[in-house]
Amino acid sequence: MAVVVGLTVIVFLLPNFLGPALIAVVLLGVAAVAGFLDRVAKLAAVVTVPFLIAVVIVQGLFYAGNETPLIAIGPVTFWEEGLSYGLLVFFRVLVVVCAVLLMVYSTHPKKMMVAFIDKGLSPKLAYVFMASLQFVPEMQRRAQAIIEAQQARGLDLKANLWRRFQALLAMMIPLLTGALISAETRSLALEARGFSRVGVRSHLIEVPDGAADRVIRWSMAAIVILVAIWRIVL
Amino acid sequence: MSLIEIEDLTFSYASQPDEPALRNLSCGIEQGSFVGITGLAEAGKSSFCRLVAGYIPHFFDGKFSGRVSVAGTDTSETTIGELAEKVGFVFENPFDQLTGASLTVLEEVAFALENMGLPREEIRRRAEESLAQVGMEDLADWHPQQLSGGQSQRLALASVLAAQPEVFVLDEPTSQLDPLGVEEVFDVVSNMHRGGYTVIVVSQDLDHLAVHANRLIVIHEGEIKWDGEPRQVLLKAAEARHPILIPDVLEISRSLRAAGRIPSSSPAPLTVEQAATELSNVEKQSSASEAIVMGKGSRRLPDSTPESSMEILFEDVHYDYPTGVSAIRGVSLSLSGGCVCIVGQNGAGKTTFARHLNGLLRPTRGRVLVRGKDTREHRVAELAREAGLAFQNPDDQLFRSTVEDEVRFGPDNLGMSPDEAKRLVASALDLMGLQAVREKKPYDLGLPERKRVATASVIAMDTPVVVLDEPTGGQDAEGIGLLGNLVGHLARQGKLVVVVTHDVKFASQHADRIIALYQGRVLLDDGPRTVFGQEEILARTHVEPPAVTRLGKLLGLDETMLSPEELLDIFAPG
User: Fold this and answer.
1) R_g over Cα of chain A
2) 3-class SS of residue B462
3) Is residue B53 helix, strand or coil?
4) How many angstroms separate the CA of residue A151 from the nearest CA in chain B?
5) Distance between CA atoms of B329 and B545, rounded to whole angstroms?
6) Which residues touch A176 (CB under 8 Å, ≥6 apart)?
7) What is the pairing mode between strands B496-500 and B513-518?
8) Residue B466: how many CB atoms within 10 A of its CB?
9) How many CB atoms lie within 10 A of CB A132?
């Protein structure tokens, strides 16, 4: 976690795109060693590639400091400064995305939450995080069930626009109402299991916070400060 | 003083201030008792449970008068969290009551203990102990979403058990489970009772509840109608023709007492074995085959209609889910008119089979013809004109602002004329007993009524084929009666009614033909008398014949019994 925050700060401090690009490569290397390169790379690509195209085009065309023309096609000129700034923004985002994905994939979510709670995060917030992990597949399953039930009642998903609008209602209302009905049961069940109880909590899972963890945290902080000083002084 | 004391309690929900859910109710529950509660839907059973756990008045707003105390604490002067240390609660829906934030079964059980701040070792010990008590110690590392309904419900029990409350309240814990799940849950609950816990269980399933409980309460319109030893209560309720699901064995015994064939002093039977012992001393007046011929035994035989009117044809149908699971493995059959019930254990392929009847699923091999249309070549919306399918969970479809509008949704989709739609909607509402609530919002109704709304909305489409998936689940005596009439009505109109069900009593009363599925194949396919007569084969797919059939078998009768009336004709004709 400390590493993620640290890297985020660093990439925003670095002046050109070469630094963040290097860090991104290192992160993907770490992912490869840990054995989830394909998952991290796939998701990172889905999130950042459309962003790359958009940011490079927009900055390439309209960046405020544009001076050196790179290519000119008719009335449209593509500028060098804009391109490099666009790449800088892209690689910054890529580093953040890769770092977060790496953390999510390498850490057992429950352990991560326990660690956060130990560091003072509200247990309720931690619950929301954990519950949302299961909420999405659950909602997908229900949405599928609703589509089937409505089709069985003759709802045509491929009809005219008005019908399709109706179809959307026929989908969304049961989905939301159903979620509210289960939320009522769930909130009572949580209440009954002492969820809103004040006082010390304990955890079934132990998350050791050893010397190595502390060294990494502090050295990350030190690196961030060094980079900051370098940027200010130079 | 009793462990739980309710004094002169009246409560109305804020949404219905003029219709009290509970009226002047007084009741005491002793430590260590097993109290069963039954009654019609909306009678006040759930409100009773919520009262004991303090959800009323702390979670549900409304007008509250009277007093409730649990182990000496006035519930209105404490919080739900504090009361939870004394009262554990298990809800109807097996999945909604899990935290949804645990990655393993063990973590789920540990949740309450973590909130209590117990030491790690203590948490682990108590969580493992609770799992062992519900027989799930081997599943500790499973993800909660992998569990079946019955397992999920037992996990909920274990989670409550871990916090060691004194009282367990279970509100319809088995209404959404298959027969195996029902057995599992009742076994665990009665073990807990033997272990000294006080248990309160709300259920429509009196065949199970009456056997385990040592006290039965019938609630009617917010008041206690009968309260006492289960046998006595059931006899009184049966005498008064009160609409609850009186076990067949008790009903038979009661009729024979009334006819003077059994001395009224002997205790009434609650199980098939007890009934068999009682009846073995009663002299038979006629043989079973005579009784069937005499009575209403002339049931329709399996269809022998000519091929031209064939409604549905399965030709060597196979279905594999994208996950690779084979759910249907070579089914060939034809269905024409009448009521066909599909039975079999969970995972036997019943629901997958039903989804082939209107093209929601298409065979991965072989083909399905619905009234001549190959399901692979037609859209579901088109096939919906031929076959209407009502799903188990009404909350996956209800979305309009009144019951009447909701029921109109199907006819409107099919493009019927307003007059036609109006007529069909009125008839569907009548059949499902919903005329009185037609102006209400569907979600203001209880789950059993919502389910009938969903069924009515499919009936109103007036399709030649009607498929009902577990229509009787969670229904009270009135609801099951309405469904029985519905099935008969549709079959008389010449429609094909396919009912997927665990309810063997319903199947024995209404089916013209029963298809038992086992591992994606047809295990048995014949009239109900023939199918239920093959107890050993049915056992392979965990289907138990109805109580009266098993009773007939224990008595060594020469024919398979399908109804209490047939059995009574043997012992007390006329």
Assistant:
1) 24
2) coil
3) helix
4) 6
5) 25
6) none
7) unpaired
8) 26
9) 11
**Dist CA A72 CA B190 (whole Å):** 83
Q: What angle do CA A207, A213, A216 make, to 5 degrees?
A: 155
At A7 the pLDDT is 67
Nearest to B367 by CA among B326, B324, B331: B331
Instruction: Report yes or no: A139 at the B interface, CB cutoff 8 Å.
Output: no
Picking from B384, B390, B397, the nearest residue to A174 by CB comes out as: B397
CB contact under 8 Å between B117 and A200, yes or no, is yes
Q: Strand B521-526's sheet: what is its strand order? A: B387-390, B465-469, B496-500, B338-343, B513-518, B521-526
Q: Cβ contacts (< 8 Å) between A159 and chain B: which residues? A: 381
E strand or H helix that includes residue B282: none
Would you state the torsion angle of the CA atoms of residues B466, B469, B470, B471, taken in this order, to the nearest 10 degrees?
Answer: -40
- Indicate the DSSP class of residue B322: T
Tell me if the pTM is above 0.90: no
Q: Does A185 contact B355 at a Cβ distance shorter than 8 Å?
A: no
The single residue listed with the structure tokens 């956060």 is A116
Compute the nearest-CA separation of B157 from chain A (Å). 12
The Cα–Cα gap between B257 and B254 comes to: 5
Residue of A nearest to B356 (CA): A152
Mean pLDDT over each residue of chain B, to the nearest integer: 91
- Closest partner residue to A185 (CB to CB) among B96, B159, B397 is B96
What are the helix (H) ranges across B302-446? 350-356, 380-383, 403-413, 418-431
Decide if A192 and B116 are in contact by the 8 Å CB cutoff.
Answer: no
**Cα–Cα distance, B313 to B491 (Å, whole number):** 18
Reported as a single tens digit per residue, the pLDDT across A26-40 is: 777 877 777 777 777
Report which residue type is found at B31: Q
Task: Give the one of A152, A193, A206 whose C-beta lies nearest to B358's C-beta.
Answer: A152
Give the DSSP H or E segment for B130. helix B120-133
User: By CB neighbour count within 10 A (0-12 exposed, 13-18 middle, 19+ buried), where does B220 fall?
Assistant: middle
Residues B265-290 as b/e (b if ≥16 CB within 10 A, e otherwise) read eeebbbbbebbbebbeeeeeeeebeb
DSSP structural state of residue B373: E
What is the rounded CA–CA span in Å between residue B409 and residue B420?
13
Structure tokens at B68: 């409730």
CB–CB of A110 and B381 under 8 A?
no
Probe site for chain B from A147, A173, A188 (most B CB atoms < 10 A): A188
Backbone angles phi, psi at B36, to 5 degrees: -95, 140
Number of H helices, E strands in chain B: 23, 20
Q: How confident is the model at residue B213 (pLDDT cuts 50, 70, 90)?
A: very high
Who's near B450: CB < 8 A, 6+ residues apart?
B394, B395, B398, B442, B443
Which residue spans within A34-181 are E strands per DSSP? 69-73, 76-79
Q: Across the interface, which of B81, B396, B414 has its CB nearest the CB of A178? A: B396
pLDDT, one tens digit per residue, over B294-312 is: 655 444 444 444 444 568 9
Of the candidate ranges A188-202, B22-36, B311-325, B527-541, the one whose mean pLDDT is the lowest:
A188-202
Q: Which token pair is B445?
A: 């109704």
Take residue B252 and report the two structure tokens written for it: 């038979």
Q: Which residue has the tokens 């690509």?
A: A45
pLDDT reported for residue B534 = 95
Element (H, E) at B332: strand B326-335
Helix (H, G, I), strand (E, B) or coil at B11: strand
Longest dimension (CA), chain A: 71
Half-sphere exposure at residue B3, Cβ-oriented, CA atoms within 13 angstroms: 19
| Distances B136 to A203, B59, B146, B311 between C-alpha atoms, Å | 21, 32, 13, 45
Per-residue pLDDT tens for B353-383? 999 999 999 999 999 999 999 999 999 988 9
Q: Is the ipTM of this complex over 0.90?
A: no
